[in-house]
Specification:
globular; 6-stranded parallel beta sheet; binds NADP nicotinamide-adenine-dinucleotide phosphate; 43% helix; two-stranded parallel sheet
Length: 300
């Protein structure tokens, strides 16, 4: 199966990894669009871009499968509390526009989403059909995006929720902790929020596999396996740096009040992903070691 991918949010953590993954792939042709190339909130531009891309691909390669992967998002979780309107435009209206354009072009759509659609108070991993209940503006807008995509394009869309992402591109928790390890004797990190740290490269490989598959449309979860706290994650980062993990002290979320509430528990079950026969994502700890091993320039 030859694939033509259109990747939005191409300069973000996940978009950049996906385009990297495609570079090595056989029979996959990808076009990456950063915000300057395509603002997903611009209805005319979205329709024009997807239709033009479809025409060009089809004229040369009528048999290619067309898949739009929406990695564009308003990801500033705290800022979204004060500016839900803009977050909604990017995270909900944008995906709806993309879904409409895909429907017209006969393309599939993979919409990337988040653990923040859940209330975050579970005591076992969230499954894809568990009740949602976002506690933040960001989560509400991402859930609205999921629902719009599934409603507009029920037979040709996947929603892929991920969590706790880090990658070589852009700012993220791993890079912050690497910097703090160099600047401070100790760092205090919350140990009352549990999740699955997830390497963007592993999610990108999973999205590529999904795009080329015949997995039934619907919602899937894709994170690295296992779970830990931000404190445990930071200790592992210190270990990768050859630093003493005892320098990472524990604190609680109460000590770090933030505009947007953070989920206490946001582990996502891989059940649907595994049952669909998609390649499982490795455990979070081995992913972190591999990320430091292969992308040392980005993290150290
Ligand atoms: N990061 C995480 O921990 C995490 C966790 C769970 C789920 N997710 C989801 O994973 C996906 C990818 O996240 P990420 O970490 O790669 O985010 P990211 O690094 O913030 O990348 C998002 C990209 O979207 C672009 N963008 C923002 N508004 C846009 C617009 N109106 N039109 C076009 N592009 C726009 C941003 O461009 P600018 O830089 O110019 O703003 C940025 O390059 C998102 O759906 C996110 O919700 C992320």
């Amino acid at each position: 199966m030859s694939l033509a991918l259109l990747v939005t949010g191409a300069d973000g953590q996940l978009g950049a990894e996906l385009l990297d993954a495609v570079r090595g792939g056989k029979d996959v042709f990808a076009r990456g669009l950063n915000r300057k190339n395509l603002d997903v909130t611009d209805a005319f531009a979205v329709q024009d871009m997807v239709a033009g891309w479809e025409r060009i691909v089809r004229s040369d390669n009528p048999d290619h499968r067309l898949v739009v992967v929406n990695c564009a998002a308003y990801t500033a979780v705290d800022a979204a509390e004060e500016d839900e309107e803009t977050a909604f435009a990017v995270n909900a209206a944008g995906p709806a526009l993309l879904a409409t354009a895909c429907a017209r072009a006969g393309a599939r759509l993979i919409q990337v989403s988040t653990d923040y659609v859940f209330p975050g108070n579970a005591d076992r991993p969230y499954d894809v059909h568990d009740e949602t209940g976002p506690q933040s503006a960001y989560g509400r807008t991402k859930l609205a995006g999921e629902l719009a995509v599934r409603e507009i394009l029920p037979d040709a869309s996947h929603v892929v929720r991920t969590a706790w992402l880090y990658g070589a591109t852009g700012a993220n928790f791993v890079k912050t902790m690497v910097r703090l390890e160099g600047e401070r004797e100790t760092v205090s990190v919350v140990d009352d929020q549990r999740g699955s740290p997830t390497w963007a490269r592993d999610v990108a490989a999973g999205l590529l596999a999904l795009a080329g598959s015949d997995v039934a449309p619907g919602v899937l979860h894709a994170t690295n396996g296992g779970e830990t706290t931000w404190h445990g994650f930071t200790q592992a980062i210190f270990e990768e740096l050859g630093a003493d993990p005892a320098r990472v002290l524990t604190t609680t979320s109460d000590a770090f009040p933030r505009p947007a509430p953070r989920p206490a528990y946001s582990v996502l079950s891989p059940r649907a992903w595994d049952e669909a026969g998609l390649p499982p994502l490795q455990d979070w700890r081995s992913a972190l070691a591999e990320a430091f091993g292969t992308e040392a320039h980005a993290f150290r």
